[in-house]
Amino acid sequence: MAEVQQNEKGEGGKTKQKKQHLRVDFTPMVDMNMLLITFFMFCTTLLKPQTMNINMPMKDENLTEEEKTKIKESGAVTLLLGANDELYYYLGIPKDQSTYADSTYLITSSYGAGGIRSVLLEKNKGTYEKIQELKAQLKEGLIVDSVFRTKSKEIQEGAKDYAPTVMIKPTELSTYKNMVDALDEMLITNIGAYAIIDLTPGDRFFLYQRTGNKEYLTDEQRVELEQK
After folding, report:
1. Count H helices, E strands: the chain?
2. Which of 110, 141, 208, 224 has the fewest CB within 10 Å, making it most exposed?
3. How many angstroms separate the CA atoms of 24 and 37, rounded?
4. How does residue 151 score in pLDDT terms, banded at 50, 70 and 90?
5. What pTM did the predictor assign?
């Protein structure tokens, strides 16, 4: 509600003020807000839950436990996110403590096509090509999104016995951007099983051996190192 004052001339040339009540109708504004809300609801992609595949033990009864362990170890890839956008990785699972003293076990890499991506593509060969074919069919309109997701899941399920399992381990010196870049590589290379987990003492010693930076070590490791 608002008031508007108008000046009118009365008798004898005197100015007389006349008050008029002005009503502002906000009903059209409500309609416009509802239209905007509806527009953004239809134009915004809703978040979809992301699932992570887990490599389970093989069901082949002809394989011994040792053979199953070897298959699992051969598919393990561990990424260590270091300081200053540095990226390191190692393949398999270290056998014993002496392995951590071997600095050659830890391989220096980088983010992007010329680095860890080529390693993951090689490890995920076969699965990657099949999913890329599905993406091409989806882009051409030959299949719908629901079919693409179903078939992609079937391909990854069928390859879980030999597909790589990637363990991403950020350090205190890495950045949020490093984590995003690592996850992007998982999507680009169609890795079906990956997880973000904490560093082990062995991983920290790997990084120290390679870089000489004691900040990667735990307090106990630093004390132990000083006592030697």
Report:
1. 9, 7
2. 141
3. 23
4. confident
5. 0.65
The whole-number pLDDT of residue 45 equals: 55
Question: What residues make up the domain containing 35?
Answer: 2-43
* Lookup: tokens for 68: 């199953």
Q: Are residues 103 and 183 in the same domain?
A: yes
Whether the CB-CB separation of 166 and 191 falls below 8 Å is answered with yes
Six-digit token string for 5: 């004052």
* Domain assignment present for 140: no
Report how far residue 37's alpha carbon sits from residue 140's, in angstroms, rounded to the nearest whole number.
Answer: 32
What sign does the CA torsion over 207, 209, 212, 216 have?
positive
Residues 11 and 112 in one domain: no
Distance, in Å, from the CA atom of 89 to the CA atom of 105, rounded to the nearest integer, reads 9
**130 contacts 87 by C-beta, under 8 angstroms:** no
Q: Please state the domain count of the chain.
A: 2
Instruction: Kindly provide the residue ranges of all beta strands, DSSP E only, lying in the chain, ordered along the sequence.
Output: 2-9, 15-22, 76-81, 87-91, 107-109, 165-170, 193-196
Rounded CA separation 26/46 (Å): 31
How many angstroms separate the Cα of 129 from the Cα of each of 24, 31, 81, 118, 122?
Answer: 63, 50, 27, 14, 11
